[in-house]
Amino acid sequence: MKKNENKIYFITAIATILISFSIMVAISFKSSKIDFKPYNEFLNDLNTHSVSTVYLVPSPKIEVLLNNGTSYLTDNPDSNTLRETLLSKNVSVKDKSNTYMLQTISSIFLIISIGYLTISTISKKKSKGGISSLNTEDVSSVAKEKFNFNSLAGNEEAKESVKDIVDYLKFPEKYKKYGARVPKGVILYGDPGTGKTLLAKAIAGEANVPFYAVSGSDFIQVYVGVGASRVRNLFKKAKAHKKAVIFIDEIDAIGKKRSNSTNGSSEEKDQTLNALLTEMSGFNEDEGIIVIAATNRLDILDPALLRPGRFDRHIEIGLPDVTAREKIISLHLKNKPFNDLNIKDIAIKTAYFSGAKIENLINEAAILACKESSDFITNEHIDTAFSTIIAGHEKINTSSFKYEDKKITAYHEAGHCLISLLELPKEKVSKVSIIPTTKGAGGYTLTLPTDKSYQNLEYLSKKIMVFLGGRAAEELIFGKNHITTGAYSDLKQSSNMIYNMIAEYGMGKSLGLLRLSEMPTSIQNASAKMVLDECKDTIDTLYFKTKTLLLDNIDNLNILANELMDKETLSYDCILKLIEQNN
Ligand code: ADP
Ligand code: ZN
């Protein structure tokens, strides 16, 4: 709306300038054609009664019309008595000629139009350059997207966890009736190109509501207040539609944890963030507006953003596993001519590719096929495209393609999984994967803990064994010299647990029931060695037990690891089936 209005003003201003300018040129052209006569000749004409009319205008020249119809210009004497003289000689006097009036009006219009254009250009430039702009410029793009959940392959869990949001957007009144609180804000986090934007568009598409997309960086201006006013404007527009999805990409640009620096841009960030939070608390549950934000990392966001009533639902969008990759490949091959492609094979080769990277691969292959005027995209095109893409990507990614790395991760995760199955069978291993997470782990094993208020000594020891299972498997299979840093966070957690068991929970021998943190510093220092020794003994014993257990079940370890290398992600049912088949 605002943009269109501006356009109309702009066009009107230009048109006015052109018209006024033409009029002025025409007038001056006409007057340049009128002869000029010295003042004394005019006086002559006056005395001979040949003057019919004189146009008295406040300008250096006045126009004189003779009885014979011709006219000329002469100098303006600027005298007060001229009018009287003229009238006494029966000459008609006109104060302002039409031309003079036209000229004046044209120049006024010309000045106004030029002024308008100058001011609007300056303010536009300022808002771009970040100096000042309180005009609420449109930074969002709105579209009734045609996307739906089928536009996004894989990510089944993420789709599942936003289904209620789609339902809410369709029937907000229903939720109001039940007094149910639906999240106002959702954060999608995960690696770039994994389909966060696509999922947000799909939500809007499924619910058939407008989709407003902005990027956090659009709000960052050096000048304080601009971002905040843009946020308010964005919400105003979305609210005008009643129902809408507002998508803020790169939310970290405004929502990073606050630093101590007090420069302009950080103040601006705070104001923008506050405006966003205020707007979010300002709309009601029954309004049907959802704010979806995307970031590559959840951990760098300001906690204020994540509180209840704000962005309180966090959904990880992970890299696709082999099955999901197969679906993504098929999706992007749709509407493209291909022949004899081994889609399964491409899916296996594209380990650690994001959806966007897969799309890029298919597109490169299509370009190659097109260049060769080939009838179809073939395996050769895919292979060539693959090499160019791999060569063009960062070192980290290419190295992670190494078979060896995949194998280590597979054994590491299989180790966690197997120990968990054997030692804590009631804690269901819901998912094992060798696809890296955004939190930096090479893979992950998810368990569903049982409902227990207390954790006893036996449980804690077994839990530590599950943590140690990853490193133990690495050592057993690849040897002491090939253990990796992959166990970093496992060791961090087990060390913490063991220390707490001995020093805080009264479960150890060296301190008995004494809590170390309650002791005076002198005693804490004196018993440090003793506590350390007991911690070390405990972890060594548990590690030995873990290794022995794995060794006794080495077949199952191999089976799990191999299947992981193949499928990349295993579900609970799949794991159980594998183990049962072997026993
Ligand atoms: P993000 O917002 O996570 O950076 P996008 O949603 O912008 O990623 O994804 C970029 C492109 O990659 C999409 O337009 C789509 O073509 C492709 N893509 C990514 N993930 C998927 C997926 N799961 N299924 C299909 N296409 C995908
Ligand atoms: Zn681990």
TrEMBL record:
Keyword annotations of the record: ATP-binding, Cell membrane, Hydrolase, Membrane, Metal-binding, Metalloprotease, Nucleotide-binding, Protease, Transmembrane, Transmembrane helix, Zinc
Listed transmembrane segments: 7-29
GO molecular function, one term: zinc ion binding
UniProt-listed InterPro entries: AAA+_ATPase, AAA_lid_3, ATPase_AAA_core, ATPase_AAA_CS, P-loop_NTPase, Pept_M41_FtsH_extracell, Peptidase_M41, Peptidase_M41-like
One Gene Ontology term from the biological process aspect of the record: protein catabolic process
GO cellular component, one term: plasma membrane
Pfam families tied to this protein: AAA, AAA_lid_3, FtsH_ext, Peptidase_M41
Top-level taxonomic group: Bacteria
Entries under SUPFAM superfamilies matching the protein: FtsH protease domain-like, P-loop containing nucleoside triphosphate hydrolases
Compartments where located: Membrane
Keyword GTP-binding: no
UniProt domain AAA+ ATPase: residue ranges: 182-321
Required co-factors: Zn(2+)
PROSITE patterns: AAA
PANTHER family: ATP-DEPENDENT ZINC METALLOPROTEASE YME1L1 (PTHR23076:SF97), METALLOPROTEASE M41 FTSH (PTHR23076)
Similarity remark: Belongs to the AAA ATPase family.
Name of this protein: ATP-dependent zinc metalloprotease FtsH
Native species: Clostridium senegalense
UniProt gene name: hflB
